[in-house]
Amino acid sequence: MAVAGLAVAKAAGTARRGRPSASRAAEIDQAISAAALELFLSAGYEAASMDAIAIAAQVSKGTLYARYTSKEALFRSVLETELEKMSVRSGANDHLLPTDLRERLRVHARTLIASMNYGEFQRIQKLVASAQLTFPDTARLWHELATRRYVRFLAKDMAACAKLPPDTEVDWLFLANLFLHSIGGWQHIERLIRTVGDDEVIAFSDAVIETILKSIPHSG
Q1: Domain range 85-214, CATH architecture
Q2: Are 148 and 194 in contact (CB under 8 A)?
Q3: pTM of the full predicted structure?
């Protein structure tokens, strides 16, 4: 199997001597990442061997192992790349976020709802599903790279937007977790068993936001 348009290296044994240029190294990394993603998605994590990935990327096994010492390390890199794509897309308009906490959370909620329909998110779900049976750390890795990162971002953003006195006690991490798991979890579970319109998801997210706001001192 080969990745179309990514013939970035000659067959093993005829590779250029010496260290590749920065641009060449970037091309090789891109080819490996694209080949690994395609194979993880099409064949599944267990069946996608490092040998097959090297062939698909048209690089030698030595080149592949020089960058990734194991399939687990390569999988982590691919997952990080896909999450970064989604993060960049989701945060493209962060500079336009409202300063009012309620409206800011509403924008965050709508971005979260939309992101679950992104192609990047669908690929991530498939990646995780393909690996979780044979790669026991998949759930922990997902939590580390996605869930915890988002919760920390949201908690910090909420605290900054609320502008409460320094001595005000608010568990921002708890509220960020409540926001993410209530809205994202509800949408995911409900759509597994029935058709849920965007209006219904938005109404649910608005109710979650009002519950959160009521728990924050001096917010209304």
Answers
A1: Orthogonal Bundle (1.10)
A2: no
A3: 0.75
